[in-house]
Amino acid sequence: MKGVVLSPGRQMFFAALILGAIVWIATSSIAIAVGAFTQSRSDRELARMQARSERWVADREARLNSAVAQLNASGASLGGLAETIEKRHVALALLLTDLRGEPGAMAALSPALRGVPNADASPVERIAGVQANQERLADAANEYARGRADRLRLAFRLAGLSPSSFASPTASGGPLLEAPDSRALAAVLDVDERFAERIQRAAENLSVADTLSEAASQLPFAQPQVGARTTSSFGVRFDPFTGRPAFHSGLDFVSGFGSPVMSTAPGVVSFAGVRSGYGKTIEVDHGRGFKTRYAHLSAISVSPGQRVAVGQRVGALGSTGRSTGPHLHYEIWLNGRAVNPHRFIRAGENVQQASTQAG
Q1: Cβ-based neighbour number of residue 140 at 10 Å
Q2: Digit-coded pLDDT (tens) for 7-59
Q3: Which residues pair with 280 in a beta bridge?
Q4: Whole-structure pTM over 0.85, yes or no?
Q5: Which residue, 3, 217, 327, 351, is the most exposed by fewest CB within 10 angstroms?
Q6: CA atoms of 46 and 52, how far apart (whole Å)
């Protein structure tokens, strides 16, 4: 056995050495731990930053996709509106073709055309303006056609005639009436049914008005003398020769001797000569069971079988036959029965209004 004696100096040296080793180990361990902790925090922060970046990119991409979708939808919507307006224009063009040349039509429709918004307006505003014009134009056309048809119907009723016997509610007319109803018309023109219904209604009224107007031009609605004064009316009166009540089958017009007497409707002269009590007389057949008689004439200007026009001179006012003085005795006969000429003259005034007034 050999013993080693540690002097105090050596003890202190080894103690310092051991203590240094311990401090070095502790310091290294702490540094490693701190480094590991710091690295872990950095990784987590980096991961969070990466996640936030990915979310931001995803959000911006979603917003971009939404904006593109909205833009496409807006473009499709504008395209749809433009297509609808174009199809409505086709329907209105067909209707306006029928209205062209109608008396007072353009004056009635022009207030409905207010133009489109100014150039600074957005495309949507301009399209909406055109669409509103179309709505107003359809309403104005329908109002005009209905008003004209109603005035002509009234004229026929004033004359004691049934309008339906001269023009049915579904009288054939322009191209719009080829469709049996508004639903069929909407399918043909590819427009909404509500708009098609208004167009169809206007076209039907216009067709009825045209048919009634054409029929009216063939009926004795004109006056046989312009500006003449009526002295004796249709119906029972006191006979100027006997003083007793007697039926007067026409109207008496007083004017200057020899003043012109005109045909009140187109037709064919069926009689021109002298009739007992009537003196020099002219009778005109207008068809549809209508005849007119012009009596007490001083002169006859036509011959039997001659075709005459409305307003054409057929004779001259006189006082032949059973007459107390120069005047025209005027009668209208329908299916062999005398009817009141005054009703036809009033009806003719309404026909004239329907031909000159706006809707």
Answers
A1: 20
A2: 676 667 667 777 777 777 777 777 666 665 555 666 667 667 777 766 765 66
A3: 274, 297
A4: no
A5: 3
A6: 10
